[in-house]
Specification:
The protein contains 20 helices and 16 strands. With 506 residues, it is an alpha/beta fold.
Length: 506
């Protein structure tokens, strides 16, 4: 979503924006339970300024919703109707920042370039009165939150896996960015669209470094021949070394374990037998499974042909990257037990045994960081100035940060803050060649998983405050295990009555 709209991945704002925002738009997220430290900062902001409003959009009435000034409860899977309906109100009622749009934005439909009038026409089908029945929300509610969003001094959107891990996840990201670009609530204190990271180090260790099936480091794409050639030059490998076709995405990868497409797999830092929506995919396997895991009772270990014991985060050193583009050093506190080794040591050893020691030349956390920061210098991610020595002294630094005397960038694309912006420019979305952000015309596509006679109910999942992911660490802590109890299903009273379900049923 960020790549399509702005040309580069990762949010442009920062956590400090929380202390400037006058309207929080939380959608597909439950920060009370999933980002409690950040949510406390939101509540602090509300206590300091009684005019600050919190809008929460969620099909579940979560703990976050309990603090909302406006709680919007759409039917699951209809969020894009809401976002397009809000955009309709903003355009129809001229709540836009037309000067900002003219200077910094362009419009793109499925058929190609268009303009504001084309966007207005596209949104006609999303007038609140036209979508209210399918969403289960009153048109007046939609109009109210659209006005709050647009007329706030500074609106900050916060979203995470409820938006991102969806069949229309990219479209939803685009639609949230659209609201900010339409209203000019972007690239200034308190005004930003901030995707909260749902997993530890997902920014620094996964997306930024190109550890997804379609990516190369620094926002480069495997499908782009120029990007492949650039990385081959930087890595010092012969032209044509990098295969041109992206690999299998996560869900397809696990499906491929059941046929001959994937013959061997290394599972590291993940517990798919606990977390997959359909774990039959991994059970029906026809491949060699290696699991690198610190806990022998993790469910995925039971499938492994080989288990490699790994060090926990306190037993290794490395640089961690998070939501606001901040890299920070986590230093080793204790030695791992017995034969457990860090994942870096395991991967370096594996490369050597595979005869790839000439490719994997960085063997320590500091050497890896030096290679990675050197690669960044030839990209718009440039953080050459974030040295290991600085990371040991400072509490993390935000990129871009091209030189050792640069303080780091709070807000990306902003002149005077972001060193990548052309001198003299106030705002510049330099991710695209024409330096403009794109407002995409994204149509709502109904979910293929609709209630039916055979499957009359929808299940939507959520996290709990006292447990983390699959519970391999947190569930071993007695107080946390008691606080959360076992997994539960909460069901609408009418549905429960209709199906003969009562409290306590298993």
């Amino acid at each position: 979503g960020y790549v399509q709209t702005f040309g580069k991945d990762e949010p442009m704002g920062c956590y400090e924006d929380i202390h400037h925002a006058t309207c929080f738009f939380v959608i597909g997220a439950n920060p009370y339970e999933c980002h409690p430290v950040l949510f406390e900062r939101i509540l602090l902001r509300k206590r300091q300024n009684k005019n600050v409003k919190l809008i929460v959009v969620d099909p579940r009435r979560t703990e976050t919703a309990a603090y909302a000034d406006h709680f919007i409860q759409p039917l699951p899977g209809t969020d894009l109707l809401l976002l397009n309906a809000m955009a309709h109100v903003i355009v129809e009622d001229r709540l836009m920042d037309e000067g900002f749009i003219a200077e910094h934005c362009k419009f793109v439909s499925e058929k190609g370039p268009t303009d504001l009038e084309g966007y207005h026409a596209f949104l006609a089908d999303y007038a609140p009165e036209k979508v209210t029945e399918e969403m289960g929300i009153a048109a007046a509610q939609i109009r109210e939150v659209a006005y709050l969003f647009a007329q706030s001094e500074a609106t900050m959107s916060l979203f995470t896996m409820g938006i991102n891990q969806r069949t229309q996840g990219t479209f939803l990201n685009n639609a949230i960015h659209n609201l900010h670009l339409l209203t000019g609530h972007i690239c200034r204190p308190g005004a930003t669209s901030l995707s909260l990271t749902g997993q530890g180090n997902a920014c620094g260790g996964v997306r930024d470094t190109g550890a997804l099936a379609h990516l190369l480091p620094g926002g480069r794409l495997i499908a782009n021949p120029d990007h492949r050639a650039e990385m081959e030059r930087l890595w010092g490998v012969p032209p044509g070394t990098i295969a041109p076709d992206p690999g299998l995405h996560t869900m397809e990868l696990f499906k491929a374990m059941g046929d001959d497409r994937v013959r061997a797999i290394l599972i590291m830092g993940s517990n798919p037998m606990q977390t997959l929506p359909n774990r039959n995919a991994i059970r029906k396997r026809n491949c060699f499974i290696v699991v690198a895991e610190p806990f022998e009772d993790a469910q995925t270990v039971a499938l492994a042909d080989v288990v490699l014991p790994t060090a926990l985060w306190v037993e290794k050193e490395g640089v961690y990257g998070q939501t606001e583009r901040r890299y920070q050093l986590l230093e080793k506190l204790i030695n791992p037990p017995a034969e457990a080794r860090s994942d870096l040591e395991i991967l370096v050893d594996l490369a050597k045994r595979l005869g790839k020691e000439k490719v994997i030349t960085a063997h320590t956390p500091e050497a890896v960081w030096k290679e990675w920061s050197a690669l960044s210098a030839e990209s718009k991610y440039n953080f050459k100035g974030i040295t290991y020595a600085r990371l040991k002294k400072e509490r993390g630094l935000q990129w871009p940060c091209p030189t050792e005397n640069h303080p780091g960038t709070k807000r990306r694309y902003v002149g005077g803050d972001d060193p990548m912006v052309t001198p003299g420019k106030r705002i510049e979305f330099y991710g695209h060649p024409d330096h403009k952000a794109i407002l995409f015309l994204r149509p709502y596509i109904p979910s293929p998983q609709r209630p039916s006679e055979k499957f009359p109910l929808l299940l939507t999942t959520g996290r709990v405050l006292t447990q983390w992911h699959s519970g391999t660490i947190t569930d071993k802590i007695k107080d946390l295990a008691q606080a959360s109890g076992r997994g539960t299903v909460t069901i609408n009273r009418q549905d429960a009555h209709r199906h003969g379900i009562v409290t306590g049923d298993r």
